[in-house]
Each structure stands twice: as structure tokens, then as C-alpha cells.
Design a protein that fits this description.
Helix content is about 75%, strand content about 0%. The chain is built from 13 helices and no strands. It has helices at about 5-15, 20-30, 40-45, 55-65, 65-70, 80-95, 100-115, 120-130, 140-150, 155-165, 180-215, 225-235, 235-270. Helix 1 (about 5-15) crosses helix 3 (about 40-45), helix 7 crosses helix 9 (about 140-150) and helix 10 (about 155-165) runs antiparallel to helix 11 (about 180-215). The model has no long low-confidence stretch (mean pLDDT about 85).
């Protein structure tokens, strides 16, 4: 078994690498190679450690997307021939992700328990920092944070904060610069609402999954009602005008229906013996 001190030393070495250097080291390791550094078993333990597993998983996902940089087109090789080499390479990287995914899932489970235990103010502050994509101040990587917030245990609580975020974005956005223009502020608010809405989609999946597990049919979000609420917040005069118009149309429709009913009754009376 690899010594604890050796693993810790290898973790420090790997942590000091550049993103591309680390990705290359991970790919070389999972494909069976070994370069400089610790022995292969020590390196394996370091890459799968709780400190490194999220970063290792990130590196493997990036390598799948950038597979062509590892297997560039050779002289005289067709694109189809290159694709034939790329397919098993990508499959090998994806297969290698599984043990790291298991470690990350375990970390996310613990993170969800920690988040669920937070008081409301601290939870809201932590969720706001996540939505704003602020750098993590603690040891928990963003990938683990995301899975923790999107767990069935926590998603409903985060979704409730999202609703307030959409209605009162100024409560959560950083203070504006003294010379910020109205246009710049509107752009910040719009960008913030877009991020909140995007995160809310992930939360909805978790909430619906939890409902389905308990034998309940997940309800579809009321998109029309939410759009109407946003219209009222951003354009109250336009909404008021539309409401008056619809009421007038409904009132005219009722009058026309009553006229038709009277005409039918008159026609029936005239035709009676």
C-alpha cells in the first residue's frame, strides 16, 4: 500500500501543475503510461484522493473534448481514419472516469448534508456566491458544490431562494459602481436573472426526481404565470393596458353571447304553433 506521506507529496506536485500539464499527466496515467513523479500506485491514489478527484474528473472531461490534440491527424491519414483512432481513445477516457465519479458523488453527498444544516442566512449567502460564480473560499470544488446544491435534499431550498432572486435581484447583486449607467445596471440585472434561471433548471430536475421517487407525478412549472409576473415587474403600465383590453374584449363577448341567446329565443317563439 502506498505510504500516506508519498501520496501527500504527489498531491502537492500534481496540484502545482498547469491545467494543460495536469490534463496530460492524467491522460497518460489512465492510458497505462507513467512519467516523472511518484510510483504508479502512489500517483493513482493521489489522483483518486478527495482533494484531487474532482480536478482529475475535470481533466478527463476536457481531454475527451480535446481528443484531437492527443491524436492529431497524421501525414497521409484521412479524417475517417483519424476518427477510427479517436473513438477507442475517447471511450477509454470515459471508462476511466467512473472511479473518480464515485469519489465526487460521495463528496457531494457530504456537501449536501452540510448545506442542509446551514441556517437560512448562511445558506442564502453560500448559494448567492455560487450563482455569481465567485471563487470558492473553502476546500470544496465548484463541481462538488454544484452537485450538493442540486441534490434532492437541498434543491427545493435553493429553488425558493431563486424565486426571491428573480423578484428582487438588487438584494443579491454586488453594489453598483458610483458611475454605473442605467444601461450597465440593466445588463447586470439581466445577466444575473439569466444565471439564476439556468441554475433553476438543474434544481427543477432534482426536485422532480425526488417527487417521482415518492410516487408523485412531477408538476410542470407554470411558465405563463412566471412570464406574466415578470411582465408586471418590468412593464407595469403595459400589463395594465393589456388587462383592460382583455376585460373589454371579454365584456363585449358576453354582450354578443346574450344578443345571440335572445335572437335564438325570439326565433323559437316565432316558430312555435
Amino acid at each position: 500500500m502506498a505510504e500516506v506521506q508519498e501520496i501527500a507529496s504527489e498531491i502537492r506536485r500534481l496540484s502545482g501543475m498547469s491545467p494543460d500539464g495536469f490534463m496530460n499527466a492524467v491522460v497518460h496515467h489512465v492510458m497505462g503510461g507513467h512519467r516523472t513523479g511518484a510510483q504508479r500506485d502512489v500517483q493513482a491514489a493521489a489522483l483518486a484522493s478527495p482533494q484531487m478527484a474532482p480536478q482529475t474528473l475535470d481533466a478527463l472531461e476536457a481531454a475527451v473534448k480535446r481528443a484531437r490534440t492527443f491524436l492529431p491527424l497524421q501525414e497521409g491519414e484521412s479524417r475517417r481514419q483519424q476518427a477510427a483512432r479517436l473513438a477507442p481513445f475517447r471511450a477509454g477516457l470515459q471508462e476511466a472516469m467512473r472511479p473518480y465519479q464515485d469519489v465526487v458523488e460521495d463528496l457531494a453527498h457530504e456537501e449536501a448534508k452540510q448545506l442542509a444544516a446551514l441556517e437560512d442566512e448562511t445558506f442564502t449567502r453560500r448559494w448567492t456566491a455560487f450563482v455569481l460564480n465567485e471563487p470558492a473560499t473553502g476546500p470544496v470544488p465548484r463541481r462538488v458544490q454544484a452537485l450538493g446544491f442540486r441534490s434532492p435534499r437541498v434543491a427545493g431550498r435553493a429553488d425558493a431562494v431563486c424565486r426571491v432572486m428573480l423578484e428582487e435581484p438588487s438584494r443579491f447583486l454586488p453594489a453598483a459602481a458610483p458611475n454605473e449607467s442605467r444601461k450597465a445596471r440593466d445588463a447586470r440585472v439581466t445577466g444575473f436573472r439569466d444565471r439564476v434561471t439556468n441554475e433553476q433548471r438543474f434544481l427543477r430536475y432534482a426536485i422532480q426526481y425526488a417527487e417521482a421517487r415518492h410516487g408523485r407525478m412531477p408538476a410542470e412549472p407554470n411558465v405563463r404565470l412566471r412570464a406574466l409576473r415578470l411582465l408586471g415587474e418590468n412593464h407595469p403600465e403595459e400589463l395594465s393596458s393589456l388587462l383592460h383590453r382583455v376585460r373589454a374584449e371579454l365584456g363585449e363577448g358576453k354582450k354578443e353571447a346574450r344578443r345571440d341567446a335572445r335572437a335564438v329565443r325570439r326565433a323559437a317563439g316565432k316558430g312555435a304553433p
